[in-house]
Specification:
Elements lengths: L1 E9 L8 E9 L3 E5 L6 H8 L7 E6 L2 E2 L8 E4 L13 H6 L6 H6 L16 H12 L6 E5 L7 H18 L2 E5 L3 H7 L2 E4 L4
Parallel strand pairs: 3-8, 3-9, 6-7, 7-8
Antiparallel strand pairs: 1-2, 1-4, 4-5
Amino acid sequence: MLLEGENIGFRYERNSWLFQNLNISIESGEVVGLRGPSGYGKTTLGQILAGHQMPQEGQVTIDGQALPLKGYHPVQLVFQHPERAVNPRWRIQRVLEEGGKPDSDLLSALGIQKEWLKRSPHELSGGELQRICIARALGNETRFLIADEMTTMLDAITQAQIWQSVLEIARARKLGLLVISHDQHLIKRICGRWISLSEH
């Protein structure tokens, strides 16, 4: 499969363009890095590719077809702050089930413990909650995962554990992965190639 953004342009209201005529493609099984200074639109581009934002110019397609407007979205996005991405009133089990019934092998691969499922989000650490958000994003119909500064808030050991798990799952399922990060060492270590928004 191929996730493609063609001639993408975006700006907020009448501000200057964040980017224009931007082309990006990610194939199944490919790990691509996206880097660039703050304010250059890395997060916005991730949101456009995942269908959270509409570009003012250009289009996003999967295998030449427009992104779906209904049902489960094949492009999933994991944000930097997991506490903002979950309903604080829901139990963890319900949060997970937003992405479909969670696979027990997936939960095990991500180091998610069964007792967490009965808790509320505020009862988990940032690293634990981020694992939940990743598991939710990795439903059976997910084909591409966009990781927007996904582990920035976590300690180095937790970061390494999560990335190892995610890369193994992506490899096994031939998922396309877009890694948005300021961390050049991370991008160079895990990505087959990278794109710099500052060059556009």
